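Sequence, please.
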């Protein structure tokens, strides 16, 4: 197994970026595409394409660990009613996954071939950054009707799932799209964020499994080490990122993330204007 220290450092950096951006509504895919252009792993394009998705498994395990008791319908610590409520939560999560599963399977390859570019990422960063500011201003004088996860109805859960479809476009942010959908349709910031975290579990597991099947199950020792280091780093950073976001939104809105997206999008456009598009050769 021949893997340099530099390659390990690159993997750790990518893991940190994934762990930070997967849960904050600033687009993990967009950031990974941009960072990958400057910190490119010395591996095959096929492996890198798979790695940038499968690394999300580390991030999703953070949600499972942090919320295991809340997500476990068989816990001996729960009453019969609490177990029933947990099963209902999973039904809502599964229902919300259906739109992205159906449309994602149909258009995933097309989106990867035509939309995995810096200009698309910059555009969506700015657009949804503006949307966050608009929605928060609109929401300022509204009282959310859903202030507890148990009160989230099936209709709203499905609508949030429809918003998740928007994240097929790189730079949108899966968490950003679903949080926006939740807030617009009456959920509190905390409920919208928490449901988004749970919604990510089947979505990311499914996307990662699909990528691994497409890549094949034949890995070199170096590739296995890169996957393990990347996922472990994403897991640790995600723990911190999730805890931070849930504390932050108890007393703050999402405008700061909207402004961050706008500024980053402008920086990317400026770079494209001055230097050119580093992703141009990636389009098939």
């Amino acid at each position: 197994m021949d893997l340099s220290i530099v390659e390990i450092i690159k993997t750790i950096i990518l893991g940190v970026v994934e762990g930070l951006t997967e849960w904050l509504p600033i687009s993990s895919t967009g950031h990974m595409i941009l960072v990958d252009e400057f910190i490119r792993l010395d591996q095959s394009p096929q492996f890198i394409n798979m790695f940038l998705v499968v690394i999300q498994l580390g991030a999703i395990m953070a949600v499972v660990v942090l919320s295991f008791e809340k997500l476990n319908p068989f816990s001996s610590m729960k009453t019969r009613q609490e177990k029933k409520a947990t099963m209902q939560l999973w039904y809502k999560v599964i229902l919300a996954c259906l739109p992205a599963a159906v449309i994602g399977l149909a258009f995933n390859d097309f989106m990867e071939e035509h939309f995995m570019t810096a200009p698309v990422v910059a555009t969506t960063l700015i657009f949804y950054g503006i949307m966050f500011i608009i929605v928060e201003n609109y929401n300022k004088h509204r009282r959310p009707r859903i202030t507890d996860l148990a009160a989230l109805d099936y209709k709203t859960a499905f609508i949030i799932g429809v918003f998740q479809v928007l994240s097929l476009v790189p730079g949108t942010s899966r968490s950003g799209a679903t949080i926006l959908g939740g807030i617009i349709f009456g959920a509190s910031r905390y409920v919208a964020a928490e449901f988004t975290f749970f919604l990510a579990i089947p979505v990311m597991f499914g996307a990662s499994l699909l990528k691994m099947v497409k890549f094949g199950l034949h890995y070199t020792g170096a590739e296995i080490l890169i996957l393990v280091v990347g996922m472990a780093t994403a897991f640790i950073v995600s723990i911190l990122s999730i805890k931070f976001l849930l504390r932050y939104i108890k007393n703050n809105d999402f405008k700061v993330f909207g402004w961050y997206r706008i500024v980053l999008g402008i920086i990317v456009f400026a770079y494209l204007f001055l230097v050119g598009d580093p992703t141009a050769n990636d389009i098939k």
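The mean pLDDT is 89.
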